[in-house]
Amino acid sequence: MTEDEVLISKEELVELLEELKVPLSESTPKDDEMEKEIRIHFWDYIWDDIVASGKVYNTKVTYQISIVADKPRHPKLLELKKKLNEKGLFPIIQHERLTEKRRVHSFFSLEVLENV
Description:
Largest sheet: 6 strands, mixed
Structural class: alpha/beta
Distance between the termini: 17 Å
Strand content: 35-45%
Helix content: 10-25%
Number of helices: 2
Number of strands: 6
Mean pLDDT: 89
Shape: elongated
Order of helices and strands: EHEEEHEE
């Protein structure tokens, strides 16, 4: 971890996502949830131990944050981006169209500190 690297805790991440007041799940999206106006899912997929003096004292955990919405640039996605930027976090946000479902899937990864 570098001195310039900005990380938030998992608790801060969950609090930030809950502030958006949209359906939120710590899981991958399920087919029956795809019809909502907007929905956020997040899950971890990398654990990277932070070691000092030979001892693990925390873990840097990488989460995927997925936003499935009924339109591109949904106001809640833009609000989330703004909140992250205000915390000094600038993830690269990718987008894909789910043509059959008439939805837009926006997603990014974010590293957070978490005691695993």
